[in-house]
TrEMBL record:
<dbReference type="InterPro" id="IPR002052">
    <property type="entry name" value="DNA_methylase_N6_adenine_CS"/>
</dbReference>
<protein>
    <recommendedName>
        <fullName>site-specific DNA-methyltransferase (adenine-specific)</fullName>
        <ecNumber>2.1.1.72</ecNumber>
    </recommendedName>
</protein>
<dbReference type="GO" id="GO:0032259">
    <property type="term" value="P:methylation"/>
</dbReference>
<feature type="domain" description="TaqI-like C-terminal specificity">
    <location>
        <begin position="1092"/>
        <end position="1253"/>
    </location>
</feature>
<feature type="coiled-coil region">
    <location>
        <begin position="826"/>
        <end position="853"/>
    </location>
</feature>
<dbReference type="InterPro" id="IPR055573">
    <property type="entry name" value="DUF7149"/>
</dbReference>
<feature type="domain" description="Type II methyltransferase M.TaqI-like">
    <location>
        <begin position="646"/>
        <end position="970"/>
    </location>
</feature>
<dbReference type="InterPro" id="IPR056716">
    <property type="entry name" value="DUF7814"/>
</dbReference>
<keyword id="KW-0808">Transferase</keyword>
<keyword id="KW-0175">Coiled coil</keyword>
<dbReference type="InterPro" id="IPR025931">
    <property type="entry name" value="TaqI_C"/>
</dbReference>
<dbReference type="Pfam" id="PF12950">
    <property type="entry name" value="TaqI_C"/>
</dbReference>
<dbReference type="InterPro" id="IPR011639">
    <property type="entry name" value="MethylTrfase_TaqI-like_dom"/>
</dbReference>
<feature type="region of interest" description="Disordered">
    <location>
        <begin position="694"/>
        <end position="718"/>
    </location>
</feature>
<feature type="domain" description="DUF7149">
    <location>
        <begin position="7"/>
        <end position="242"/>
    </location>
</feature>
<dbReference type="Pfam" id="PF23653">
    <property type="entry name" value="DUF7149"/>
</dbReference>
<keyword id="KW-0238">DNA-binding</keyword>
Amino acid sequence: MQHNILRPRQALNKAYLRLKTSRSEMEQFKAALRSLLTSIDLSESEEHVKNHLRDFLKSAFYDKYGVNTKGKTDLVIHTGADTKSPAGVMLEVKRPGNKGDMPTTDNLNYKAMHELVLYYLRERVEHKNHDLKQLIITNVHEWFVFDALEFDRLFYRNGQLKKDFTEWSQGKKSGNSTDFFYKEIVAPFIAGLSESISYTWFNLKEYEKPLKNKDLKDDVKLVALYKLLSPAHLLKEPFANDANSLDPGFYLELLHIIGLEEVKEGGRKLIRRKSRPDAGSLLEAAYQKLKSEDLVSGLDNPYTYGNTREEQLFNVALELCITWMNRILFLKLLEAQLASYHQGDKVYAFMNPEYLREFDDLNELFFDVLAERPESRSANVRDKFRHIPYLNSSLFETTALEKRTLRISNLKDNSRLALYPRTVLRDGAGKVLSKSQADMRTMEYMLRFLGSYDFGAEGKEAIQEENKTLITASVLGLIFEKINGYRDGSFYTPGFITMYMSREAIRRAVVQRFNEFYTWELADFDALRFRLMANHTQQSALEANQLINSLRICDPAVGSGHYLVSALNELIVIKAELRVLLNRQGKPLHYGSIEVQNDELIVTDYYGELFSYTVHQHPDGHRSINPQVQELQETLFHEKQTIIENCLFGVDINPNSVKICRLRLWIELLKNAYYCQNQDLQDFKINRISAESNSLNPKNSLRSESWKSSNPENPDSDKFTQLQTLPNIDINIKQGNSLLSRYPLTADLHEAFGKKGHSLQAYREAVGEYKHTNSKETKKRLVHFLEEIKQGFRTTLANNDPLRQRMAKLRGTIAAVQDPDLFGAVKVDKAKLAKMKKELQKLEVEREQIETNKVYEGAFEWRFEFPEVLDEQGNYRGFDVVIGNPPYIRQEELGDFKLYLKKHFATFAGTADLYVYFVERGIDLLREGGQFSYIVPNKWMRAGYGQALRGWVQTYTLQQLLDFGDLPVFEEATTYPLIVSVTKTAPAEEDYTLQAAGIDTLDFERGLSEYLQNNGYWVQANLLPDSGWSLSDSTSQQLLEKLKKTGIPLGEYVEGKIYRGVLTGLNEAFVIDEATKDRLIAEDPKSAEVIKPFLVGRDLKRYIPPKSDRYLVLFPAGFTKEKAGNLNEEQAWKWLQENYNALADFLLPFEEKAKKRGDKGNYWWELRACAYYNEFEKEKILWPGISVEITAYTLDKKSYYGNDNVHLIINNDLSLLGILNSKVSKHFLVSTCDAVRGGYYRLKINYISQLPIAQADEETKAGIRALVEQVLAAKQADASADTAALEAAIDLQVYRLYNLTYDEVLLVEPGFAMPREEYEAALYLSN
């Protein structure tokens, strides 16, 4: 057995490792550890040692968990608060002096290991515990920590060991003592293991020095040990760094300061303007200023902000507030970054009320500091903000909306805001400040609030000396997605989803790109890695880097930019794994490990230490940065910059989302911002490793060794003051409606590109120059030039529009007819001329409607907006990857936009939700062979509105369908999400397979990829039926196909006599209880004619005769006219009072509500028209429309009516009832019907009617009927009667009816007990 020994730091999740540990938690851990080590007596018994360990664990971490012995196991940490919860960690404890039983790092094959294996197998095999996370052997000083997945792989999954354990525990071995098990079973097994085993080893004696040292700085050496023993590692509990880990306190108080609130409405959480606005909030301050000075009316098109003035004021104010808050939060991250670079030096803390007292100060910081070079700043600004670098980001340029309305400096400095009741702010005694102070100046409140949180999370493992909650860039993205997304139907996608989707789609695209470029035929990413490593040279690495940079990735509903950030991280990791992550000289970078964990990019050295960019202060006063650290920081910055500029693109209809996405990408660059070692270097264009460049200029290196000060007398004066400036990445993230375009992707632009100065090359160069320029004047010129080019495109496309060409031709014909010829006037055909003029007028109206149509507001022209996806001739080539989570907007909310969708989308269906069209648009935007990956609701796979989409998607190659069912992937709503991945190529083979999975958990110990390896299956694409897709492996698909071929659809079998129950529209009036029924009949016996027994879905149970104490008042549509004639409502009501007086009196109080129904009959007391009311009077088979028990069919002999959750088949054949309740029926329906939350299924008529019914001869039918009669009789006598044996006999008959093989039966019924030989013999005889 090979040993892979990890040190604590190496064993930890890297994202968890870099989370700061609070000082209070560290002190609690230190006290508990000191107590443990001082209490240990080498002469004490093992029992005493267990007690000391339990006390240590409880006082350090596990005071809210059950920690105790369990059976023979020395110590167990349970997953819950008491020992009744499952065991999560098992400890085998030895005395410190017992070295004979303890394993060593050279040899694990000792008694302690044997005991641990035994207790593990007992827990897994006998107690069926699937919650074990870690297993530990310790003698207090030495610790061996094994991940339970290692024991699962090596011991539990070994069939022979498991068999030996089971036989030993059952007394079937020659010895039954534990000693026998240790020596005769486990020890030989471990000795014979050839596989490696990974575990963490440490000795607590190594930590005694920092534990006893009074210097708190030494405590950082205890951080890895602290985290290793914490619940986040030992119990694998979630920790607060994932983008989903929203701190509610921060979120809700930030909303309060902005002027918003979160409310629940219809099961959804919405963000809205506060119902009781606070005049001091940012939103209200901006709103009132806009209103009082009527600033909205000066906008070019205020209606883009809403239809009413109130909507416009709110939305303009909100956009301004989000712009300002974006800048403020970016500055908080910058502040934390600078402090981290300088080891917490407080001089870099500039976001506080001492520096910024007024809104004017913030405005000054935005525009006179961050947007100005130091030498261009005024003297007082330069002195006040001397440590703040120039960033050259569009984020700190006045927006068009600010220029037309407000800047933050226009807000009142003396405005005061009431403190949030549960504010994070505390008074001197540590109590909530709102209890002693009602309000505070808004500016001061905002800065003190932000100062109460830690924004400096990225980077090194450290101890948080102040008790501050962590706020990461991911959390900020989540917050703004929630603020923006509530009305757009968008939800923030969890990190594990964006990480997985980005990894899969981008790696497929990378392999495709290399295969195309080198004409290789590599199957997957691993094959590509081996090929590149086998032929690795500096030139090949440079070429590979450029190939990756040539990828184009787009999110057409970009939101906060989460997918693009995940894509950025994935591309960095791909380069690192392929050894083509290049430094500024074009040489591969060699530095430990670069990986993505918890959707964060993590960089560690070869010893597992987190990478940290830090300026070191030396004793002699000079400062320096480790050259290797400088090289890595520069590399990461410029590789990220290159990827963002060349590879990442996004579009969103919401302007605030666009701003936030740009912010997220700037933040990703900020994480690796580095100090320029020569002030002059930042002013010339750095030659980047881009898709367009063919070489690198080694002179452009910024290595620290080459730095020379511009001030020889004081060499450090201008060192480490200026960060590398940020590029203008905003041009890649654009606002617009991704589904709406005036011009198709195939529109001809050759004429436009032929114009002087407007060539494709000029267009590309202008875009490239915009991204790199530091000059505001140059940016303005380029913006104007780019708009000029695009206007030229629009003009060309408009002139080439077929409608315009038809109009021009018609005008020419009319002119020719009207003008005299060479020999004078000709006779004009007036009728023909009038007809042509009328046609021209019609075309002009059509053109004007198109050009002025409000539907086209916000149209986005994919044809020319991104020159990066045009080929050398200017034709649309397409993206390599389209990825995202499109908005979930129901079709009822689409309004007139449906007319456009119907005309322009092949997948249109009247009831289709918006995401359907995003799927079509996303795939259309791809180049041939491109990769598509969305997460969307799964309903399109089975719903009628998805039929067009299913057929359209199948013209391409499906890669994955991963169904999360009703799992709560999104916090805000249950959306039944599905990851669908497609390659834009026609299927190479008709019977190709795709990967599928029905995912049943969100707890992926080793990631979603490994979960799919163990739980995914392969689906044969051509067996996915047009009627609806069901995900099952190809073997199950083939069985379903056999069932379909063996029988005929149920709907056809019963000649279409399948119906659903009655919709009253007002149950409180028309559905009555038994007492009311009896009273009405007693008052008027005629009432009995129209009162019917009534069922609801939950009354229906498998084979149990239905019962109910509900009744339906049934005046069907047409009843009154048939009985009384064609009367007006007043006359008809009088007739009803005379003929059904008791019912008329009963219904009269419901008149107003009943009249409002949309589904009433001719009069308000009548139910809607229904052609099959009389069918309810017959014997019939019933089933519930939604049920946990899929086969819950029963027979009704009492003429029950039912609600809309009761479905009926007008047939009383007991053999049919037996087939419907059989396991074959259940197997088919599970694969066909929609699963919904809570384990329920929707048993819709359109699904049930597809159930294939095998044609049986009379003898077979009679056999099934006889068994069904016995079941019904037993259930009639006692609803709880055990009829399992009879039902098993029915199942057997049905298996034979469908001619299932023994293996097919096992697919339907995995626990089928009949021996194969017996079944096959009986099947042979029956045939």
